[in-house]
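User: My advisor, Dr. K., asked me to get a structural model of this assembly before our group meeting. I'm new to this, so sorry if the format is off. These are the inputs:
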Amino acid sequence: MTITELEAPLRPPQRASRLTLAQRESIWGYAFISPWMFGFLTLTLVPVIATLVFTFLNLRLNQQQPVRFVGFDNYVTMLNDPRAWDALFVTLRFAAIALPIGLILPFSLALLLNSSYLRGSRYFQALFFMPYIIPFVAALFAWGSMLNPEAGWLNGLLEIFGLEGPDWLNDPGWVYPGLVLIGLWGIGSAVIVNLAGLQNVPTELYDAARVDGAGWWKSLRHVTLPLMSPVIFYSVTLGTVGVLQYFLVPLVLNSGTGRPAGATYFFNIYVYNTFFSFQNMSYGATLAWLLFVVILACTLVLFWSARFWVYYAGETK
Amino acid sequence: MAGEAQLVGVPELQSTAASAEREKRRRRPFDGRSLLVTSFTIILLAFFLSPLLRTLSLSLKSADQITTIGAPIWPADPATFEWEGREYDVYVVPIEGTNRELALVDKGRQESGFIDPADPDAGIITWQGSWRALEQPWEFAPRWGNFAEVWTRINFPRLLFNTAALAAIGGLGTIVSCTLVAYGFARFRFRGRGFLFLLLLSTIFLPAAVTLIPTYTIFVNLGWVGTWLPLLVPAFFANAYDVFLLRQYFLTIPRELDDAAKIDGAGPFRILTSIIVPSSWPVIVAVAIFHLVYSWNLYFEPLIYLSTAPELAPIALGLSQFNNIYGSEPQYIQAATLMTIVIPMIIFVFAQRAFMRGIVITGVEK
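Assistant: The format is fine. Below is the predicted structure of the whole assembly, which you can bring to the meeting.
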């Protein structure tokens, strides 16, 4: 309507005729993706390069000394900084617990919701998904209160079974399971993605497996898992990238102090503190760059490994 | 639940296998195994959602109840009885083998005087023993006033307005920019299209920490700290998830429709507004809801960019700051938590189908 009327004077006929159809299509294409290209350049590409440049300088948030080139000083500091490696280790230890749970739990729940024995599956799907929309700060307070050692319901439940519940969020040995529970309401989207994957497995394959004498476990192992491998790959990759950056919940929970006993001093907490509390931009940038390299390495290994275990149905056709 | 009629499951990707499976499910008789699986799922769901119930219960309690050991888990007050113009606490008194609920009118060390609320004229009943060892019966007494208290203490209308404004402006920016970009990737051939699309998707894997420090510096130098601009402007430059979602959907719209419009003299913008957008409402709605949930979750960006302007903070940040001040009053924290959840919850009930379909498209097809 009005938009097409506006278009006309922008492209005078004599100029348009000089362009081929393909050229004109390219120009339109670039024009339409230009919002992203501009954003990518200014908010992604330039900052990524700037972060790298910062690592070779002595920038501070409250710059007092003149800015100068310090070579690899920040990298040497990082290599000799026990806090950086502790924070990385804390992050990897949490990942070792949270990542497998984050894969197995949604998958199992999707299997359950996909079971033909389950009545009212659609209602259950919606209800298991629903807490996904709850803001994480609200989920943190709801579950945090649930995990309260005296008044919380979880320890009350354990008491019924004769077990003494731990002080979840203040015991370094229990804080990771506690954080996993706090994050439990976020599994909704993974459940839905797994469920959609399961529903895409052709029933004929299960029938064929049954004819060949495969039981529940064997058809899970040899039919479901291979056909679900693209979904699993997606979950592993995004889960890894996410868990290595994990820090919002501990930031709200302990204001970045790492309580209890440094168990929640995650790598990103250290980056955040270095930048905003210690005001050391260049060193913060160096730490951020290390995290980037670790994440990039994990992603590349995962993508490389995909050829051995991820099965795309389209490939054989 | 009123919304149940609208709770519909994941839209299966249309295939005969899936519909055959559904057909089979419908015909399976309800037997012992169904009962077992369904009961197990109900127990699991009860555990999964129990914090919501606890939040609700706690938000309605009085401060006294929370600090009283042995108080019930539902909101309640100790029972009282008014007698001769004064209020007396009611206790469970064991008299002659039966427990009677009596009002304590005369407190004593070795013996106390009670009256029976059911029959006050019968006079004072004396009971031997320490009244401190007696239990009080509880009466259901929800403190709805907790919500009113939080409403003013946290300045809830302000937080709600901020969050809604951020969701609306940012949502508009996201929808417009992502639609344009997705349309560019879906319908036009240009050099480097494949590479650029891959580049777009790869930003999902980029840790935010790598861009944070220069981005913060840029926004400081632009003078945008203390305003909503650092939270809103990036939304106008599209993002990988929503572009992917929209592009996948646009690809399913037959090109013949474009061609027909082209013959009628429509330009690319006209095709976008008259063909692509009208046939894509379900995904556009999904993008809008994604952004709404995102806005209700906004915490980190406001934390660093609005530290000098607390009156502009959105709800998630407001809630965490409220907790820092009133952490010792759990009933108010839980009431505020519930108030934070309520709007996303309402939106979910009405739009969960579009929402879940959006997640399936971004999750399965990538």
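One thing worth pointing out at the meeting: Chain B has two domains: 80-136, 147-364.

User: Perfect, thanks a lot.
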